[in-house]
Amino acid sequence: MARLSYHSQSPLNASLTASKRWVTSLGIWGVGAGTAALFLLSVTPLVKREFLSKVPALGSYYEDKTPASDKPF
C-alpha cells in the first residue's frame, strides 16, 4: 500500500506553482483571441494600413494598389 506524505509549502512557492499553470493557459487563449480579432478586423482600412501592411512576409498582400483616381473619397 502506498503511503502519502504531505509536505508543507511556502505561500510564495504555492503561488508560483499556480501561476505557472495559469500563464501557459492564458497565453494560449490570448494568442487565439488576438488572432481571431486580427482576422475579424482585417477588412477595416485602419488595420490594413497600420498593421497588416507592415508585416514583413505578408505586407505586399495587404497594400492598397488602387490608383488615387479610382478611389471615391
Automatic annotation (TrEMBL):
Residue ranges crossing the lipid bilayer per the database entry: 26-47
Entry-linked Pfam families: QCR10
Lineage: superkingdom: Eukaryota
Alphabetized UniProt keyword annotations: Membrane, Transmembrane, Transmembrane helix
GO cellular component, one term: mitochondrion
GO biological process: mitochondrial electron transport, ubiquinol to cytochrome c
Record protein name field: Cytochrome b-c1 complex subunit 10
